[in-house]
Predict the structure.
Amino acid sequence: MSRSIISGMGFYVPDNIVTNQDLEKLMETNDEWITERTGIKERRWVIPGEDSTSGMGFKAAKMAIENAGISKDEIDFIIFATLSPDYYFPGPGVTIQEALDLPPIGALDIRNQCSGFVYGLSIADQYIRTGMYKNILVIGSELHSGGLDKTTRGRGVSVIFGDGAGAAVVCATEDENRGILSTHLHAEGKHAKELALLSPATSRWVDTIMKEHDPSDISYYPHMNGNFVFKHAVTRFPEVIMEALQQNGYTPQDIDMLIPHQANLRISQFVQRTMKLNDDQVYNNIQRYGNTTAASIPIALTEALNEGKIKKGDLVCLAAFGSGFTWASALIRW
Ligand code: UT7
């Protein structure tokens, strides 16, 4: 049976840097609060109209294909993870297929928020193990900035999120010493509304919202019960990392690099302390990009690779937690 390896990674973030000081001009917030509570110093926000979720995903995908050293025409399946699609439907997977000028291969859109990339990787791994596909493009891309409440009312959410995209080319290999060892996926729908965007929806279409025209209606902005999400995140991250390690007979000390979803630097540091990991076993870049949801892991993984922090043969763990709640991990022998 074939194994899956990540043979190329890529990422793209918009040029427009928005610092904490820039946010102070939009809402009542300050650099000290944001830095202390989240670790974020700046994020990238698309200049309105200048890019899209699929547009950023396309640029990340091109880099990943180039780094994989294959031709785009060898891609035989696309998986696109996002919570901020260009349109309500169709999903951005088909836009990527068209933008890359590919033959009519399959394109799957998945909606698993912060866990989206790891869920996508897991799907790709299963298709490759069964022999159905050989080279799968997995993309995580988010354009949050257009949908945030950038007033003081929305500051608990809007200072955290950034725009960007990351992509991986997942390929079949017969090398038994490398590849995705296992993936672990979880969900707990009873907490769905603790981190959610409720409108527009099939239960509440735009015309209803327009008719009501209620400026105090915040259901069309993302809502997050921050403390509640935080408490679950710091439990679920170590749990799902340990699940991956135990299944493969490893301990936290065996990890060469942990790439946690970049939700909040305090969450990553808590996980690091709980698992007794050294600084050089964990990669964080939320300071520069904020929380880019489905894009955060592939962006961080690409940067860690570019900085030479992951070598062939390393044990790499990816772990995510977010809206749903959903959480997931993947253990990879690089
Ligand atoms: O990626 C998906 C998963 N997401 C996460 O894992 C996020 C998890 N949660 C968090 O990261 C944190 O809960 C937040 C960063 C969102 C918030 O940090 P917190 O320490 O939980 O703060 P808080 O919500 O309890 O708010 C504390 C205070 C409040 O004021 P009072 O009521 O104490 O007077 C807020 O109104 O801070 C106020 N506040 C702000 N002040 C300045 C909230 N947002 C801001 C802000 N600037 N941006």
About this structure: The chain has two domains: 3-173, 179-188+229-333. The chain is about 35% helix and 25% strand. Residues 3-173 form a domain with the Peroxisomal Thiolase; Chain A, domain 1 fold (CATH 3.40.47.10).
